[in-house]
From TrEMBL:
Signal peptide: none annotated. One of its GO terms (molecular function) is catalytic activity. This is Radical SAM core domain-containing protein. Keywords: Iron, Iron-sulfur, Metal-binding. The keyword Protease does not apply.
Amino acid sequence: MKINFREAKSIITKSNIPQIDFVINPYTGCQHGCIYCYAEFMIRFTNHKGEKWGEFLDIKQFELDKIKPQRYDGKRILLSSVTDPYLPLEKKYQNTRKILEKLVGTEAEV
């Protein structure tokens, strides 16, 4: 498993998914490498040419202070549209936990 750290401009991004306003993907790639994973197509949007889905994980680094919770009041947020939010390395890096804690108390629907 190749582990990388990647700077994320924004960890909560606008969504093109119908009825979803924003999406959170705390990681790029996956540790599981499930044979029937629908998210495998995402590899073409990464810098992992020649690697297989399930062989790499980019841990997104972001500034927690840049998340403005009130911006998401009344909005629908999809957690992890193309990665597992609770990968084994979540225990160490806690990206998912930090983001969700930042959204506690908002009117966002996650």
